[in-house]
């Protein structure tokens, strides 16, 4: 399959990757600053979901 990466798709992809980078940095900062065990479990869940989204974005056919 050949996908054409036009201007609109490029902007959407940049927005998604920018959001993931922001989420990753926020999750990292929260994991370093949270002390409560309950909150650590929530932050671990958040970081696991962000990692899953990275895997989904990396599996887009036009990125490989």
Task: Summarize this entry quickly.
By secondary structure, the chain is mainly α. It is built from 2 helices and no strands. Helix content is 77%, strand content 0%.
Q: Into which percentage range does the β-strand content fall?
A: under 5%
Total helical segments: 2
**End-to-end distance:** 11 Å
Bin the helical content: over 70%
List the helices and strands and how they pair.
Blueprint lengths: L6 H27 L3 H22 L6
Helix pairs in contact: 1-2
Descriptive report:
The protein is mainly alpha-helical and about 60 residues long. It has helices at about 5-35, 35-60. About 0% of the residues are buried. The mean pLDDT is about 90.
Defining traits:
64 residues, mainly alpha, 2 helices, 77% helix, elongated
